[in-house]
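so ive been stuck on this for like two days lol. basically i have the seq below and the ligand is magnesium ion, smiles is in there too. i just want the complex predicted, nothing fancy, no docking runs or whatever. if the output looks off dont worry ill sanity check it later, just need somthing to start from for the group meeting slides
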Amino acid sequence: MTGHLVSAVKVGKRYGTLQALTDVSIDVSAGEVVCIIGPSGSGKTTFLRCINQLETIDAGAIWLDGELTGYRRVGNALRPLSEVEIARQRRITGMVFQRFNLFPHMTALQNVTEGPVQVLKKRPDRAREDAMALLERVGLAHKADVYPAQLSGGQQQRIAIARSLAMRPKLMLFDEPTSALDPELVGEVLNVMRDLAGSGMTMIVVTHELAFARDVSNRIIFMDEGRVVESGPPEALMTNPREQRTRDFLRAVLAPAPTSGAPAGEAAR
Amino acid sequence: MADMNNPPVDATAEEVDVARLPHIRPRHYGRITAVVAILVIGLFLIRAFAVGRIDWTTTWQYLVWPSIVWGLINTIWMSVACMVMGIVIGVSCAVARGSPNPVLRFTAIGYAWFFRGTPVILQLLIWFNLALVFPTLGVPGLWSVNTVDVITPAVATLLGLGLNEGAYTSEIMRAGMLSVDRGQYEASKSIGMSYTQSLRRIILPQAMRVVVPPLGNEFIALIKTTSLASIIGFSDVLRNAQDIYYDNAKVIELLMVAAFWYLIVVSVLSVGQAVVERRFGRGFSSSDKQ
Ligand SMILES: Nc1ncnc2c1ncn2[C@@H]1O[C@H](COP(=O)(O)OP(=O)(O)OP(=O)(O)O)[C@@H](O)[C@H]1O
Ligand SMILES: [Mg+2]
């Protein structure tokens, strides 16, 4: 319809009296990597959850791959889709959570094959082959038969990425995928994400890792108080932001290094 | 913990000396006292029953008496049937409690309110006497049966205990489902699972881990509660033991027979529970070996 993979137009979301998102409009083309940055509580997570329909939106509309999400147009009104149709639309996107959310009662391999077998009705042996290839890709083929509780945070997050990729999504959403990790484990997850971006995957990444955002993304979006404050190419936005609020935020994140080696994400919170 | 061959550089001579002393295992005087006390009491009880006025050969003789075995079988199948019914109803009600549909939610709440709010024995009596309220059951004009023919003691027991069990199990199941992290629902949705798929594959298996110990409790209680159904004429093991001692006056001997069988059934069940617990505990202890 619009030629973009994601097209969010004037999206609004309220929690009770709190306006979490106001008039958020963002377009993402296929193959693009977009990073969203912004202070805590600015609505970054909420926006990702709206794209993935874990939350319903109160205003505006979101198109995914040319299809209106969550609603069908009936005359001059929008009628909510059924749970089944929403589940189908969700398969366009994969989501990686801050706290991994692996299924603890399944091995790493079972975590990855669960979606293909149960949802896509793939044959179990085929699903296992594909899953092993994905585990290979995130460097964890040797941990296939291990339960999540026996894996480090970084390994769990890489399994979670493999689990999402197994559904062959067109768009990957990452919500602060490294901020629950010990500093020395951040790199391994970012490397997997870097490879993924290099392979042409469309990605929206909420992150406090400004170095990653600068190196990997095509565009950075700065959000504050539920609105998009500004967006632009990484170099331009980070070295020469237009808005005062962006400048303040970047200064707060970049400037103080209280203890040596503290990642940018720590300072932001 | 200084190594003798490699003492820390700044250790004094005395420290090195102390570090060399052997470590003595602590003595658990409390445990020793407890073991002695239990042994004494145990021996006393065994002696009391051995010399007491119990005719153990009678007990032995009735252990596999046909009507006792029959009663035992009744007790077992009734407990299993009621528990299965309880779990099916319990899971359905727990899911209904979490449903956005208010009708389902209030039905589930009302059900638990009624069946937990009245004594089980009263419920058994109501089911058994259903014929007083509804002399016939069926679709008016099409098909009907006499209530007394359908509501036998066994059917009344199944309905009474099963529905009552469902009310308690629903709360246990609800607690189990609440114990599963919200992130698990979201992760299963994010890989495209429907609500029922995520319940069946992700949420319930994890809830089971929490739910098995209290369910084991319920099952054990239920096995013993079936004996209540003897008041509406259900022939469980205790009832049949009583029938025998009304006849031959060997009261304690036959009660011992019943006690023996209850203990055996509950023991077997406990072993089963341990197996089930291990099955659902997979992945939850970091010492697990694949
Ligand atoms: N389920 C909810 N119910 C009520 N309020 C919520 C809910 N989820 C988020 N909020 C509120 O919405 C606002 C935006 O939250 P959101 O989680 O999107 O922020 P964020 O930018 O992801 O912050 P952070 O960097 O801390 O993760 C916050 O004020 C938050 O308190
Ligand atoms: Mg967030």
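The first helix of chain A runs from residue 44 to 51. Residues A 44-45, 175-176 surround magnesium ion (ligand 2) (CB under 6 Å).
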